[in-house]
């Protein structure tokens, strides 16, 4: 099977495989943890934060999202700690809000004062916590495949079983720290940064986390992607369209 047919069989847009947009890849020390990142394109900076047990390449590059956004933005992706080509510490205290700190330190490393932030699933939790802790670094946000998850709420089953055969491809310490990424209702109400929610119509996160969020923040628009679940939402052309619209 040739490369293009294989890509189509996997549900990946062919243009994502053929795109020749120049990217710069690098790494930096984030409080003792090596974080891998890429910068693609030029313009208004956008940081993309991937989901649990994924990576920048899997979540953003292969579906063609990085290349599409780079037509009008400086697109910054990172492999969150514990994922991809970044370091993978094994202790719980290395994760939690340290993953938010990685985004801030990446902006510092690139000398970017403020950026638009888009996160999917775990990346959505990191994004929401970033809005609560460091609103001065964010111009606007897109929260994909996630909503508001209070500390005492259950974890989405996709977050518990992401990976082959239900086994995580990342240290278990990472999802065990997710309670630290929760925000209180008071913190949620206090956020002044505009945000948009994008979620698949069949995603269990829609009922578990997005609906509670809508009750507290009815001013944040929710865009529902038809015929999409949690895992395949980023592959849908409608997801990219809504992401582009929100970033504009």
Protein architecture, described:
There is one protein chain. 35% of the residues lie in helices and 21% in strands. The chain is built from eleven helices and eight strands. It has helices at 3-9, 14-18, 56-61, 65-69, 97-109, 122-133, 157-161, 173-176, 185-190, 204-216, 237-247, and strands at residues 23-30, 33-40, 44-49, 73-78, 115-120, 138-144, 195-200, 222-225. α5 (97-109) packs across α6. The N and C termini lie far apart (39 Å).
Summarize the structure.
With 248 residues, the protein is α/β, with parallel strands linked by helices. The protein has helices at residues 3-9, 14-18, 56-61, 65-69, 97-109, 122-133, 157-161, 173-176, 185-190, 204-216, 237-247; strands spanning 23-30, 33-40, 44-49, 73-78, 115-120, 138-144, 195-200, 222-225.
Features:
globular, alpha/beta, eight-stranded mixed β-sheet, 248 residues, Rossmann fold, 8 strands, disordered N terminus
Distance between the termini: 39 Å
CATH homologous superfamily grouping? Alpha/Beta hydrolase fold, catalytic domain
CATH topology category name? Rossmann fold
Helix/sheet category:
alpha/beta
H and E order: HHEEEHHEHEHEHHHEHEH
Mean pLDDT: 89
Q: Work out the number of β strands.
A: 8
The CATH architecture category equals 3-Layer(aba) Sandwich
Estimate nothing, just give the exact number of structural domains. 1
Q: Which parts are unreliable, with pLDDT below 50 for 5 consecutive residues or more?
A: 1-20, 159-166
Q: Evaluate the radius of gyration.
A: 17 Å
């Amino acid at each position: 099977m040739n490369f293009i047919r294989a890509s189509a069989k996997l549900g990946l847009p062919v243009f994502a495989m053929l795109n020749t947009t120049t990217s710069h890849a690098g790494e930096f020390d984030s409080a003792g943890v090596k974080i891998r990142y890429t910068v693609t394109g030029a313009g208004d900076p956008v940081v993309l934060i991937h989901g649990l047990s994924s990576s920048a390449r899997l979540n953003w590059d292969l579906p063609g999202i990085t290349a599409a956004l780079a037509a009008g933005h400086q697109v910054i992706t990172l492999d969150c700690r514990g994922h991809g080509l970044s370091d993978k510490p094994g202790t719980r205290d290395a994760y939690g809000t340290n993953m938010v700190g990685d985004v801030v330190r990446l902006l510092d490393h690139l000398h970017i004062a403020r950026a638009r932030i888009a996160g999917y699933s775990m990346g959505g939790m990191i994004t929401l916590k970033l809005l609560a802790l460091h609103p001065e670094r964010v111009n606007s946000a897109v929260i994909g495949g996630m909503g508001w998850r209070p500390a005492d709420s259950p974890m989405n089953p996709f977050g518990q079983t992401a990976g082959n055969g239900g086994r995580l491809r990342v240290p278990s310490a990472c999802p065990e720290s997710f309670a630290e990424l929760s925000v209180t209702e008071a913190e949620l109400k206090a956020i002044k940064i505009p945000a948009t929610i994008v979620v698949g119509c069949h995603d269990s996160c829609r009922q578990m986390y997005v609906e509670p969020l809508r009750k507290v923040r009815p001013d944040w628009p929710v865009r529902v992607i038809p015929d999409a679940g949690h895992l395949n939402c980023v592959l849908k052309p409608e997801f990219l369209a809504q992401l582009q619209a929100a970033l504009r």
